[in-house]
Amino acid sequence: MRRPRPLTDRAVPVVAWRILILLTAVFAEAWNIKNMLQSGEPPTEHFAYFTVQSNIFVIALMAWMLLVPSERRPRWFDHVRGAITAYIVLTGLVYAVLLAEPDEVWAWSIEFTNAAQHRFIPWMVGLDWLLVPTARRISLGAAAWWMAYPVGYLVAAWLRGGLVDGWFPYPFLDPSEHGGWAGLVWPTGQVLLAFIVGIFAVAAIGRLRYRESGSPAPPAAGPASASLASSPSSTSSSP
Q1: Domain presence at residue 20
Q2: What percent of the chain has pLDDT above 90?
Q3: Residue whose C-alpha is closest to residue 198's, from 63, 98, 86, 113
Q4: What is the distance between the alpha carbons of residues 101 and 118, in angstroms, rounded to a whole number?
Q5: Residue 236 resides in a domain
Q6: Nearest-5° angle of CA 69, CA 71, CA 76?
Q7: Taking the model in full, what pTM does it have?
Q8: C-alpha Rg value of the chain to the nearest Å
C-alpha cells in the first residue's frame, strides 16, 4: 500500500486553514487596537506584550506563506516558520500555566481577543506545523538560535522596567512582585526552561515531519539558483 502524500503549501485545505489563521489573528489584533484606543492604554505598553508580538509574527508568517510560493522562499524560511510556531505555542502554554487565573484556564467566558491570541491561534499554528512538512530538514543546532528573540525580549523588558519607566509586561518579570531582582531567578527561570524545551520540541517535530515526507527540498531562491535553472549546461554562459 502506498503511503499518502504529505500536505503541501498549495493543497486547498492548507491554504484554507492558513487563511482562517490569518483572518483570526488580524481580527483579534484589530479588536485589541480598538480596545487600546478606547481605554487609553499606551501603545508602547500594548505592543510590548510578548503575546501581541508573537501574534503579529503569525500574521506576517501566514501572509508570507500564502503569497510567496515555497520555491521562492529563502533557505532559512523553515527556521523562521519553526521559531514563530514555537513562540505562539509557548505563548498559549505560559498563559495557561503562569498567567491565567485558575478559573480562566478552561473557561469560555473570557473575551474574544484573549481566547483567540492565547488559545485558538496557538493550537491552529501548531497544527499547521504538525501537518505540513518543512521544505528542508530542520537543524537542531541552528534551532538553538530561536532562543535569541525570547532572551532579547527578556533583556529589553528588564532594561525598560529598571531604567526607563518602571513598567513590566508580566508579573514574572517584575522584581517588586518577587522581593527584588534576586527573586526573579525562579519564575523567570521557569519560563526560560519552558522556552528551551518547547523550542527544541517544535524543532524535533519539524525534523521528523521532513523525514516522513520524503519530499526533496526546493532550490534556494536567489540569483544563483535562478541562473542554474536557466543554464542548459555547466559550460553555457550567463548574461
Answers
A1: yes
A2: 67
A3: 86
A4: 13
A5: no
A6: 100
A7: 0.84
A8: 21
Q: Residue 154: inside a domain, yes or no?
A: yes
Binned at pLDDT 50, 70 and 90, residue 209 comes out as confident
User: How does DSSP classify residue 3?
Assistant: P
Q: Determine how many CB atoms are found less than 10 A away from the CB of residue 174.
A: 18
* CA distances to 15, 107, 111, 209 from 23, in Å: 12, 23, 17, 26
Number of domains in the chain: 1
Taking only the tens place, the pLDDT of each residue in 8-44 is: 888 999 999 999 999 999 999 999 999 999 999 999 9
Q: CB–CB of 122/89 below 8 Å?
A: yes
Q: Give which of 150, 149, 154, 161 is closest to 44, Cα–Cα.
A: 161
Cβ pair 53, 149 in contact under 8 A: no
d(CA 123, CA 25): 12
Kindly tell me if the per-residue pLDDT of 232 is higher than 90.
Answer: no
Task: Tell whether 139 is covered by a domain.
Answer: yes
Domain that holds residue 114: 12-216
